[in-house]
Design goal:
single chain; alpha+beta; 10 strands; globular
Length: 362
């Protein structure tokens, strides 16, 4: 009897091991097969500004971490699906808050793996031009600004141009048929934009850190000690529809910040912080360095600032004014103008410029 039981137990152990082997083999084959299957739909982010949790998370870095794309999904996505995923990235439109779009692109490349991966795709240029062509053709059907889709279409064009310019900076200037296609499509876009009366869309110039309009004028303002500072007097501002669009986008991305003024392109952060806080300010300032170089303001390091101190992020990347101080540095409140976006009251780390070195001035 014992011998029979021993034989039965041996058979059971053998069958169990065989079944486990087959199961492991099936799992391995399944995983291998899954890796070969391409994903042709955009990735759905686990956290977006539409989620209640977005506002409860105070740190931008934490939100950015939650929006990284899992590597096993990222490498299987088609370039078109990845492109749409990048365009849907919750912080993609951060770039409109930067005076220089190249700096915005480099920061996004460092902080978001989807953007970095997209730039490595060999067929990126082809896919970008195809997508841009489709949007340009769609734009031609709109004859007036009463159709909200017209503005949305323009903004998609701007976003794609942002990607196309950085693609060329990273991977080489377009040539041949690609260059010809872009030149033709940019002309098509310009015709549509003028017909509709929109202002935004000088994406190529903004990569050079320039705000360019035929009516803008180069002029000079002066520091408290009389040092001349080059500025651009900006005469054209956004349409009401464009202002409302930028306001809604930034308000959604940064729900814990308070917008004090609507988006406008007449003045930027440096002009607001160093020259004039008046809403009538119409000067765009690229470089505020003269204000501390000539002794008008004294530079301080990591101190506890008082209200009224000037602040810079990344030395000259962004400027603001300390509104309210705190023993907890994360609770310090800043007033600053976000590029061509609005004027915001925000915590020191709740803005598009987090992760950069901070300097105070008095």
């Amino acid at each position: 009897m014992k011998k029979i039981i021993t034989i039965v137990m041996s058979l059971l152990m053998f069958m169990t091991s065989v079944n486990m082997a087959f199961a492991l083999e099936r799992e391995t084959v399944s995983q291998f097969s899954d890796e070969k299957i391409k994903i042709d739909v955009p990735y759905e982010y686990p956290l977006t500004p539409e989620d209640p949790e977005w506002k409860t998370i105070q740190l931008k870095d934490e939100k950015v971490a939650k929006c990284q794309i899992p590597e096993n999904i990222l490498k299987r996505m088609t370039t078109l699906a990845l492109l749409e995923t990048v365009l849907n990235y919750p912080y993609f439109k951060d770039y409109i808050t930067f005076d220089n779009y190249e700096i915005a692109a480099r920061m996004m490349e460092e902080n978001f793996n989807g953007f970095a991966s997209l730039l490595q795709r060999e067929d990126l240029t082809e896919v970008l031009i195809m997508r841009y062509n489709n949007v340009c053709q769609e734009m031609l059907q709109y004859t007036n600004r009463s159709n909200k889709n017209a503005l949305e279409c323009l903004m998609v064009q701007n976003n794609l141009e942002f990607l196309m310019v950085y693609d060329q900076l990273k991977n080489g200037i377009y040539s041949g048929k690609s260059a010809e296609a872009i030149d033709r499509l940019l002309k098509v876009k310009d015709i549509s934009k003028k017909r509709l009366g929109y202002i935004s869309g000088d994406t190529y110039e903004r990569f050079a850190g320039q705000v360019v309009s035929p009516l803008d004028v180069n002029t000079t303002v002066y520091t408290p000690k009389g040092t001349p500072v080059s500025v651009i007097k900006v005469t054209e501002d956004y349409t009401m529809e464009e202002k409302a669009y930028y306001d809604s986008q930034l308000d959604s991305m940064y729900p814990n910040a308070t917008r004090l003024r609507s988006a406008c392109r007449k003045y930027n952060c440096h002009s607001y912080a160093w020259y004039s806080q008046a809403s009538s300010n119409s000067y765009w300032m690229d470089d505020p360095e003269a204000y501390w170089q000539d002794g008008s303001y004294t530079q301080h390091g990591q101190i506890r600032p008082s209200a009224g101190y000037k602040i810079t992020y990344g030395m000259k990347l962004h400027s603001g004014i300390v509104y309210q101080t705190s023993s907890d540095v994360t609770q310090i409140l800043i007033k600053s103008k976000w590029g061509e976006g609005g004027l915001y009251l925000h915590k020191i780390g709740d803005c598009p410029y987090t992760g950069l070195s901070i300097m105070y001035y008095k």
